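Input (PIN domain nuclease of toxin-antitoxin system):
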Amino acid sequence: MNLFDSSALLCFLQGEHGAAVVEEALEEGGRCSAVNWSETAQKVLGRSGDWELARGLLLSFAVEVEPVLAVDAERAAHLWRRGEGLSLADRVCLATGERLNATIWTADATWGESPRVRQVR
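Output:
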């Protein structure tokens, strides 16, 4: 199963380097945590983009929005490390990926290396 971080979805939507890699993963379907879905929408809207169009495109790939559970929230809190640069949305994505035993797609290099994480660039 694929789980998409907002940075990967934005990479795809904006046609950035790595977009083709994200598109291939999207073709397999997958999920996005509700927190990352919100972050994606906020970034699109913040750039005066058309969220309805972007939303429709992502949903056409059968991307499902995954609810954030208490266990995800608590695990995200445990993943926090001072100075590491992982946002709350990043940590929720990692925690949700652990719970779902998913491959996590990101364009955020600050995540570093992990067997579960796939860097798209």
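Strands lie at 2-4, 30-33, 63-66, 103-106, 117-119.
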